[in-house]
Structures are given as C-alpha cells and as structure tokens.
Amino acid sequence: MKNRILAVLSVAVLTVTTLVGCGSSASIDSAEVPATGPDESTTGKQTDGKNLPELTTEEMTITLWDIATEEPGRPTQEAAVARFMKDYPNIHVEQVHQQNDNYKQQLVVAMSSGQCPDMYVSWGGGPMAEYYKSGFADDITDLYNKYDHPDFIDAAIAQGSYKDKILGIPFGSLSGCDIFYNKTIFKDLGLEVPETIDELEDVCAKLKENGITPFALANSAKWTGSMYYMYLVARHSGNDEFDAAYTQEGSFGSEAFLFASDKIQDWVKKGYFPDGVNSLSPDDGQDKQLLYDGSCAMMLHGSWMAGSMSSDNAEWYQENIGVFRFPEDSEAKAKGVPQDVEIGTAIGNCFNFNSKGDQAKLEAMYVLATQYYNDDTYNQMQMDSFQTPSIKGFENQVTDPNMKIITDVFFQASNVQLWYDQYLPASVTEVHKNSMSALFGLEKNGAEIGADQDAAMKAAIEEQ
Amino acid sequence: MKNESNTSLANVKRKKTAVAAGVFLLPAFLLIAIYFIYPIIDTFVISAYKWNGISSARTFVGLENWKTLIHDKNFWDAFEHNIIIMVFSIMLQIPIGMLLATFLDAGGKKFNAFKIIWFLPYLMSSVAIAFLFTYALATNGGIFSSLASIIKGTKVTIDLLGRSPHALFAVIGVMAWQYTPFYMVYFMAGYGNIDTTIYEAAIIDGATRGQYVRLIAIPLLGPIFKTACTMSLIGSLKYFDLIWNLTQGGPVNSTELMATYMYKLSFQQFNMGYGSCVAAGMFILITVIALLFQKVFVVKEDY
C-alpha cells in the first residue's frame, strides 16, 4: 500500500514538474510565435472536433485572478492556462495569483475602481450574487446550453447559478464534510463507529472517561464550529427549517436550530470540545495537531483535510485515520426527515466572467474554463492531490479509502447544503459567525443567537 | 509719482515671491491634496450614500447612515474598546518605556546590549507579532498554558484569546510589548537632549542620582511626555493591524475596534456607504479627543 502511494506521489511530482516546465516555455512561445492564420490554428488543438465557438484570431488579453498561490493548486492551474495559450497563441492569459486571505477584499476594491479582472474565482453563494447584481458577472446560460462542457454534477452547476442563471464554471473539487477519527484509539477502547447521534454521545462519554477529548475543533475561524451546528440542524430537519429561516418564513430560532444549539452547549459543558476552543486556529492547524498528539479522537472537517493530513505524514494517516458520515438523528428519521443531507460544496471554486459585453472574449474564456481547466490532464492532477472533480464518473476513480467514503457519501446525498457562511448574504454571515463564537463560548443560548440571526436576515431581505 | 513706483516695485517683488513660493509648494500640496484631503472629503461624501462598494449605482440617503451610526451598539462598543486600549496603553507603555530609558541612561554604554534587545519587538511587523502571539497565547502548547502546567504538575489550560473580557487585555499586553520600545527610545532621546551641565551642576550641589531623575530630569522631560501621550492616544484610537491579525475583533466582538468594524462593513459585508460613515465618525471622534487632550494637558515649556 505504502509503495503504491509513493509511486503515485512520485508520478504526480514528475507530471507536475514536467508541466510546470511546459508552462513557462509555452508562455514564451505565445509571445514569440506570430499569430497564426485561421487554417493552421484549427489543427492539432485538444479542442478539435468539439462543439465549441470559433475563437477569434486577433490578439487578445484575458486577465484572470485565482487564489492558487500554493502547490498543488498553482502548477495544476498554470498548466491549464499554458495548454490553452499553446493552442491559441494569439490569446494571452494574464494569470494573477492572489492571496486567499485578502482575495475577496481585493476583488471588491478592483471592481469599485474599474479594474475588475475578465475572469475571476468565486465560491458561488451570496458574494457571487452580489457581483452579478452589480454587473460584474456575466450570465453564461446560453453559452452553456449551446456548446460542449464537462458533465458537471447537478449540484455543482446549481451552486454556480443565481436565480436559474448560470454564472460560474466549476473548476475546483467537491468538498464534503465528515468526521475523521482515530482508528487506533477507537480500537483500543473497543468503540464502534456511531450510526446515530445517541451512539455518538455514548462514544464521546467513553472517550472522556478515558481522558480523551472527543472532538478536535479550532473555532477561532468560526466556520469550523458552524459545521457542527449545520449538521445538527440538517439531521433534525433536513433542509426545511434552514430554507424557511433563509426566507424568514421560518426562523433561526425554530426547533432544529434550538436542538443544535442545545446539543452543542451540552457537549461544551461535558468537555467534549478542547479547552479554549474559541482561540484555537484552524489556519495554524491547531485542530489537526490535537488529533495528531492523541488528545482528541474525532474531527468534523472538510474533506480537504484528508489530503492535508496525508501530506503532513502519509504513513501515520494511513494507519490511524478513518472517516464516517455525520450520524443520524433517529427520532427525526422516524418522522421521515431525510438523513442524507450533506454539508459542503459541490464546486469548491468556480470562475465568473466579466466580459463587459465583449462576446469574443467571453467565448474564449468559456473555452478556457470548460476545456483546459477540467480537461483530462487537469482532472488527473486534481485526483493525484486527493481532490475529486465535480464531474460525473469521478466518484469511481478515487483510490484513497477515506476519500472513497467521503465521495460516496457525497454522491449519495439527497441534497447538498452549501456552508452557511458562503450561502448567506455577507451581512448575515458575519452575524452567523459571531453566533458560533458565542455558542461555543456559552455566552449566548440558542434562542438568543436565533434572534440575532433572524434580525440580520430580515435586514438583508429588506435591502434586496 | 516716486511713491507709486516704489509701491509697485514692492508689489512686483511680493508677487514674485508669492509665485516662487507657490511653485515650490505646489507639488507637496498636490500630493497632500490627492492622498489626504481628497480621501477624507470623499469618505464624508460616500457616507451619505447607500453603496455596496462595487456597483456603479449609489443611492443617496442623506443622513440616514449617520442616524444608524448614532444608535449602533456595535460601533459604540468598539469605541469603548478603543478607549480602554487607549487608557491602558498610556498607563503601561509610557511609564515602562520611561523606566527602561532611565535605566539605560544611568548605565551608559555598559547597557548597549539591553538597548538592542529591548528595541527588537518594535522592529517586527504587526503581522509577524500577531502570528507569534497566536502561538504564544495558544491553549495547547502556548507559553502561559505550558508554564502553568509545569508549575501545577497537571495539564492546565489558560485561554487568553478565546474568552470575552480576557481577550481585550491579552491584546493590550501584546500591544504594550510591541510599542514600549518605541517610547523607550523616545525618552532616551529626551534624556540625551538634557544639557550635561545641568547634571553636573546638580551633582556638584550634592544631589543623588535619584534626586536628579525625580526633581530635574522628569520635569525637563515634560514636553516629551505630552507628545508621547498624544501619539499613544491617536495610535490607540485608530489601531487596526495587530488586532485584525490576532483576533479579527473576536470572540463575539469583544476586541472589535472602530477600525476593524469599519473594515468588516466596507469590505466583507458589502456596505461601503455605512463603512465610510463609520470611518468619518472615527475621524471626528479622534480629532475631537486629540484636541481636547492637547487643550487640557498643555505643559508649559518655560525653560
């Protein structure tokens, strides 16, 4: 097993390095080779024979903003752009890697000062809607229906859409959210993987008896604690109560939300989360550290953690880490509430386009996003780094056993609930995140944070 | 006739001087106008609009944002945090800086090593300091938690950044660590400016080192104190970078400052109009407080 992984890794490294080599030479090519005539340029492209718009033969520059500052994202995405520029030497793509932390703010500043890039990465949800309403995101429904594109899973396209208009082409990977656990600790203490929330609580109690904190959580980022809240709400009411709260026909203080808040605060009081949970930072990896040193046994986290933990120490990860889906709420199940709602994102990232009415440019960007990002080479590189593209069929190609479970859970989900902090309007997100601090810090109860979130949601609806 | 030509000559000269002065001042004035005056005015203008910061459509709402601001609990809470930070900054940074400077001044060249070591924190960027202290104050493996665990013999968690009243004071401590060296150097320069003859005269008159510092040096450093306090005051009121990188205003707004609140509104919540209103409010509050301070604590410079 270990050897196979080593082999896969070394192949991945080789591919990456070769492609990076290609990348730099290709961009030099595009600068030196004069624009070729239409006859020559239609031969030998990887898009040949596909139903795609005929791209311009005139010189064109596309500015592209992404957040791929680190490996493996950066070489993967640079290679996609390089392949595109090799096939279309007259089109120059200026790829700018922005730091993730400040990216959204940078983008806002760029938009307000008339410097909005031609295509840029977004996460869908509330902010993308904001870009669209302000005229910085093109509606590409017509292009998408008319021309070829990868067979994206429905949830991915849904997430890149706003009011039934397709705005974004996915190019990231699906990210589920499941419970990673330490198999060795479970085995030593004779614990079974819990199927229901009651069983999960039994497991927690036993762990606690043995001096192990059940959940590794670093809540200074607040969206990490929100994962527990979102799942408890989803298990208790499916999507119904959240959807109702979103339109304010219901409320963030309704039964499922109170159920979730009470459970979490009960768990906090019982010591199921680490001390100082609100000051631990996931950006510094303080949650997985607690899993590594054995002081915690479980961690509800995004599926990207599989790759992250594996790259920290592949051997330890293979030996000790397993994964299971968030347990079911048996009472709610008896009432017929679906227990297979998945929290996460079907796309990770998508590209939005800002062509300012330049149809030729929009078509070029469409071809770049659908045919060079998302092509076989690109997807393979994604798979090599534990990422499953949001394209039908890839669920069968996953090799890592944990990623296999995560992907299966994801594909079997009846519905994917996008992270609240991406889905909600920006002003409500802030309130929601603060509510999560207050909840885990026992500073406010479920009814109080419900009222706070309702007030913010009402204000946001009024503004629309 | 003679008179007339005289005045006209003077006029010509005056005019020429004015033109020359204008030409020399123009570049500086342009820079200040573009980078200071225009943004301040524009902030006030934007504060009268409802605007998400990106779309070309702004809606004029007049004083609506200002009405919200006056009743905005978050803003006044943030202002209160600023005031707390201001008071503690002045109380901690300036006296400690003064003490260190006195110590170094008395020691002379022997203490050069201390001078360098103590000055180091000020040379680090706020972002680096924030990063450093996220680890130092962490509950698992942080300095305080580890020390307490060693002393008590069992695992102790000291959560400084994750709980409500503690976080603000932890931040004040980090700020003091960062800025005390600045005031130390400032006071050292002050000591350096005191004429050595004064020291010699005092010693000849039989004063001890303690008496010299207490009765002669400190009164002479008066104006320096005043400037240091004003700088600390303004700095505390517009503080942003360390807080942003250390706590982002959390947990639950307990370390939210006016500046972090403004940033969140403007760039995270797509509410540039109201964010500008907060910025303008900050401008007014800081100006008023600084001017009041100057008025109340005028130190006579009569030596």
From TrEMBL, chain A:
Lineage of producing organism: Bacteria, Bacillati, Bacillota, Clostridia, Lachnospirales
Signal peptide coordinates: 1-21
Keyword Transcription regulation: no
Protein name: Raffinose/stachyose/melibiose transport system substrate-binding protein
Organism annotation: Pseudobutyrivibrio xylanivorans DSM 14809
Region feature (Disordered): 27-51
Keywords per UniProt: Cell membrane, Lipoprotein, Membrane, Palmitate, Signal
SUPFAM superfamilies given in the database record: Periplasmic binding protein-like II (SSF53850)
PROSITE patterns the record matches: PROKAR_LIPOPROTEIN (PS51257)
UniProt KW Iron-sulfur keyword: no
From TrEMBL, chain B:
Biological process annotations from GO: transmembrane transport
Domain ABC transmembrane type-1: from-to ranges: 79-295
Signal peptide: none
Membrane topology: Multi-pass membrane protein
Transmembrane helix keyword on record: yes
Record's subcellular location: Cell membrane
Gene Ontology CC, one term: plasma membrane
Keywords: Cell membrane, Membrane, Transmembrane, Transmembrane helix, Transport
Transmembrane regions listed in the UniProt entry: 21-41, 83-104, 116-138, 167-191, 212-234, 272-293
Record family assignment: Belongs to the binding-protein-dependent transport system permease family.
Official protein name in the record: Raffinose/stachyose/melibiose transport system permease protein
